[in-house]
Every structure is written in C-alpha cells, then in structure tokens.
Design goal:
Blueprint: H1 18-23, H2 25-38, H3 45-54, H4 61-71, H5 79-102, E1 106-107, E2 110-111, H6 113-117, H7 119-140, H8 143-166, H9 174-199, H10 204-231, H11 234-237, H12 243-246, H13 252-260, H14 263-274, H15 282-292, H16 295-314, H17 321-335
Antiparallel strand pairs: 1-2
Length: about 350
Amino acid sequence: MALVTAVSNNTKPQASIQALLDLTETGMEKVNQIILSKAGSNVDLIPEIAKHLISSGGKRLRPMLTLACADMFGYQGDGHEVLAASVEFMHTATLLHDDVVDESDMRRGKLAARKVWGNQASVLVGDYLLGQSFKMMVDVGSLEALRILSGASAVIAEGEVLQLGAAQNLATSEADYMRVIEAKTAALFAAAAEVGPVIANQNDEMKLAARTYGMELGLAFQLVDDALDYGGTSADLGKDVGDDFREGKITLPVVLSVQRGTDEDRAFWKRCLEGNDIEDGDLDHAIELMRKYDAIAETVVRARTFGAGALKALEKLPAGAHVDAMADAVEFCISRVS
C-alpha cells in the first residue's frame, strides 16, 4: 500500500500535480484530440464559443482522474479517453451555464463567453456540449459508466438550482451550503474517478474507493475556491477576487461570519448580500470580518479535513505511481490557499 499521509497544516507551497500530468500525458493528448473533434459543428458559432473556453486553460483535473483511475488497473483500450473527454465536456457546459446564471464577466482570466457572444449563445452551446458528452458515453458502450455520468449531470443541475435558492439568503445553513457544493462540484469529481475502475471491470470496493476519493477531493477543492474568493488573488482564481460577494453567493466563509458576528455585522451582510447594496470598501470590510471571525481559516480547515478523507480512500486502491500522484493532487488543491 502506498504511503499516504494526512494533509498537514503546513502544506508545502511547491505541491504540484506534475506527477499526474506526466502519468496521463499520452492519454490527455488523445483526450484533447477527441475534445477538438467533438466540439466541431457545421454551425460556426458552436466551435468558436466552445474553443474559446476549452483553449483558455484549466487544469483538466477531472479527465486526468478518469485516466489515472483506469490506468492504475492496467486498462487496455481507448474507452477511458472517450469518457475523460465526456467528463470535460460536462464540466465545460456547466461553466458556460454558470457564467450566465451568475452574470460573471471573467472565466479563467479571459472574458466569459457570455460577455463576447451573449447569454443565449452561451447557454445553447453548453447544451450542445452536454449532448455531445452523452453521445460519447453511449459510444463507449458501458451502461454503468453511462449511469454514473448521466446521474452526475442530473445532480449538478440540482446543485445549480439549490445554489440559486441559497443566493442572497442569509438563512442558508452550513448544511445547505454543503449540499450545494456536493452536488455542483464534488459529484463530477466523484463520477470522473469512479468510471475509471468501472471501465477496467473492477469490483465494488475499488469503485467505491475511487468515488470516495473524488467526492472528498471535490469538496476540498470547492472549499478552497470559496476561501480564495476572499483570501486569494485573481491569478489564483482565474476571475476577479470578490465575485462571490458581488454575486450574492452564500459560501462557507459568509455562513461562518454571519453565525459568529454581531447584530451590526449581520446588518452589513444583509445590506450587501440580500439587499444587493454594495458600496466602495464593502468587499474590504467583508474580508476584515471574515478574518476577525476566522471564517476563511476555518474554511481551509474544513478543506483539509476532506483532503484527509480523500487520502484515506486512496489507501484502498492499488499502491503505485498513480495513487502517489493522486495524493499529490490533494496537496496541490489545498496548497492553493496556503
């Protein structure tokens, strides 16, 4: 069994996913070819918008997990590459839809597609990518993989609706928030990892271990993102710092600040987030309150807890380079805010 250690409070800043990149390099080249091929269409606007987002970067962590979780079992074939491309299309479609719902201006350091081509085109191209994603799942011929990924797609949509209901609502509890990020973010991480052992014809224990790893990693990843929105930089996020604040999103740093704050503090949050009345200096004050009540630090602590859960799940998977690289990915995700 590979040596898997808990995520420490002093995660090394040089934590990297380079080992995972190296292990999946050949497979990801094929995945990228599939992505470019399947993003094509006789309708010129579709590949134009799709490639705007696809070519704008992103770590492609989810499809890499699909490849790694199949490769570690010695899978032979190209089904995992097709499923990895399908996973990336699902993710890309979600980003296109999210930016419209959230009225975001930036994505991965570039103008959001909706700012270039408009909301309607962005939503419709997102729908096209989802359709292509499902076609690829069917092409692989694994009903179980299709069930897992199609189920994740439905859960993600539920999460988007849950988030919409929680937005600008200070009554949102920590449990409500966790339901949102489990559905919106962690579900796709979990599915991306689980279909690896599925396509490699592994037993239920291996499938569950991979799924648990993905779920815990996804929760840690989103918690770190939410902490970075108030404690990071635009370079860390690929979007403007404070976007969650301006969009009225109720994330864990806000939930904790509201719970721990005074009546005066809660009046501030109510004006800004429920009333959508944000003045100059309000973001700085929000960050001050979060630091005062350790809300950002506590969010990172929660992320480390889920990171430790991801590492624990790895102990059940075959020891070797892939498990070691996936452990590095946990450290990398959390070190973004260290």
